[in-house]
Amino acid sequence: MSDGWPEGSTDEEDATDDEPTTRRTPVVVVVEPETPGNVGTIARAMKNFGLDDLKLVDPPELAEDGEAYGFAGHAREDVLPNAEEVTLEEVTANYHTVGTTAITGEDDRSHERFPFKTPVELRESLETVDAPTAIVFGREGRGLNNDELSQLDEVCSIPAAADYPVLNLGQAATVVLYELRDLTVEETQLPDTAVTRAPEADVERFHEYFGSFLEATGQRTHRREKNALLMRRLLGRAHPTEREVHSLLGTIRKATTKLEHADYLAAKHDEPAYPRE
């Protein structure tokens, strides 16, 4: 399974400004699909729009003489039989992730489903960024839950009528992949990549350090969780470079060390700790 993951370096020295960058085609991830036919439909849409890497989390059985292969068209020859079964944790550890949802938050009080991009806005964001990216679709009936969305870097939603905004899983995937076609269809003329996103291992390491920093500030658990999610969303939109992430890592690490040292000195000299909420 490890052969399917993107490679990346965690050493700043390995990245040079002179190395050419190549935009990587997104992979498609479907979490707990219930209907084999929808898996086949998604595989067909991938084939239509130049994608070939399909990953499935807890999929149903996909028999070669069954519904999935019947709906897949020519994708039955390569996309579908090469689909890889993975866990969501493996995906988040190795890719810049974009979760899809029909239900969105109306403002920034709903951090799991806001802010969100339309498929067009997502394409505009990704077309100047070099990063291993996974487009994550949820279940037919319930989609991705808040806990799963909280693990993902960005959120995408298809604009639809307010009285019936929920699309069929296969339809939703087809719409999103169609809008991303400029990233995947060879005939499309694309601008040069402007940004090479930091390796996901470095980004996740930053989130771990940021979590330690939040804990050192003495914030309540629910506030730390909210701020950690806000930071994940911020970096998800910003596409930081490797150098930027390394600089942030150093700053957060030093700030955390100073806070912990301040607590140590306060306890040693029987002084009150700095004000906390």
Q: Based on the structure, what is the oligomeric state of the protein chains?
A: single chain
Distance between the termini: 45 Å
Report strand order across the widest sheet.
3-2-1-6-4-7
CATH-defined superfamily of the largest domain: SPOUT methyltransferase, trefoil knot domain
- At CATH level 3, the topology of the largest domain is Alpha/beta knot
Which architecture name of the largest domain does CATH use?
Answer: 3-Layer(aba) Sandwich
Overall structural class, as computed from helix and strand content, comes to: alpha/beta
Number of strands: 8
* CATH domain class name of the largest domain: Alpha Beta
| Mean pLDDT over the residues | 83
- Count the domains: 2
Spans with pLDDT under 50 lasting ≥5 residues? 8-22
What radius of gyration results from the CA coordinates? Answer: 21 Å
Order of helices and strands: EHEHEHEHEEHEHHEHHH
> How helix-rich are the residues, as a percent range?
40-55%
Count the DSSP helices. 10
Report strand %: 5-15%
Outline type? elongated
Q: Let me know the largest β-sheet.
A: 6 strands, parallel
Task: Sum up the structure in keywords.
277 residues; alpha/beta; Alpha/beta knot; six-stranded parallel sheet; two-stranded parallel ribbon; 10% strand
